[in-house]
Amino acid sequence: MALFDKILGGTSASSFTIEEAVVAVLFLTVSADGNISDEEKELFVATSNRMKLLKKQTVEEYNAMMEKIRAHFNKHGFDTTLSHAVQFIPAELRDTTFALSADIIFADGSVDENETLFIESVQKALQIPDNLAMQIVEVMQIKNKG
Known about the structure:
By secondary structure, the protein is mainly alpha-helical. 72% of the residues lie in helices and 0% in strands. Helix 5 (91-106) runs parallel beside helix 7 (130-143). It is globular.
C-alpha cells in the first residue's frame, strides 16, 4: 500500500487477489444497470458460495473482501475497477469469470442497454473471443428463461 493510501484509506494499484478480482467483476455485473434486483443479489451470493476460489474463506474474510471491492469501486468507478480487476484474473479463469458474469446479467429475466454494454466491456477486458462469448451468452439466455 502506498504511503498516502495508508493515510487516506485508498487502495493501491496492485491490491486485488485472484479471488477479489473475480468477485469484483461479478460485483460490477450486479451493479451494471444501477439497480440490483433480488434475483441478481441471490445469484451473486449463490455464485460466491459455490466458487472453489472462495471455499476456504471465512465470513469475516468474505466481508472484508467485499468492503475492499466496494471501496475501490466507490473511489475509482466502474471502468477503472473493471480494468484493475481483470489484470489479476489468470487466463484459465477468464472464460469462467465471463460465464458467471453473463449468468448474473440474465438472472432478472431482462437485459437492458447498460447491461449489454457492460457485458461487452467484460468480454473485451477479459479478451474472450466473439465465438466463445456468443456460445456462453446463448447458454445463459437459455438457462435463465424458465
